[in-house]
Structure formats: C-alpha cells, structure tokens
C-alpha cells in the first residue's frame, strides 16, 4: 500500500526542516489533535498512539541531508516506512511531501488506508509549526 500526502510549502529552508525532522522529538509538534500518546524512546525513535489505534514505534532508518528522511516501523509485525522529501524552492522556502509505504494484507489495508491517509496529511499540514 502506497500513500502520499499533498505537497505543502513551508517558509523555512530545506536544511532547517531537515534538521528539525532529524530530531525525533519534534514529531510531537506535527501530530494530530487526536494523539493519545507520544514518547521519545531513543535518539532516533519514538512511540505514538492515536485514539482508537494501536501504538506505533517509529525509528529513523536513513537520512540524506537536506532532502530526505526515512522512518520505519521498529517492529517487523507491521512492516512500513514513512519518507519525508524536502525540495528547496528558495533560500527560505521549501516544499515537503510525505510518502507512506506498507505491506499489509487486503483486509488490513482496507481498514487502515483512511486513517493513515488522514494522518500523513495532518503531519504534512503541520510542517509550518516546526
């Protein structure tokens, strides 16, 4: 299952956004209002839970300054990744887009597609808060 957020423009440089997203504790600022839990579990990982959804642990898997960050599930039970692509537009303006890729069976994919789509749209929409 592949999902992508709308591309959002942020009035920050690509390097600034990359630095902010490299620090996993800043993901709390991007979370939707329905967040029930957010806990940093290490320099490169965090757990979050949304109301009505199971808790998910994400771990930083790859960084390529200043254009790409890749987070992945810390558990192999639900293999998925969340990628942030940052495109510089001007010195203090960047476009950011999030890409979700997960390997789910058809039933699970049907159940999670809507909530995950809304979730990554919210994360992208909140980039201006960084």
TrEMBL record:
SUPFAM superfamilies: Bet v1-like. This is Carbon monoxide dehydrogenase subunit G. It comes from Flavobacterium caeni.
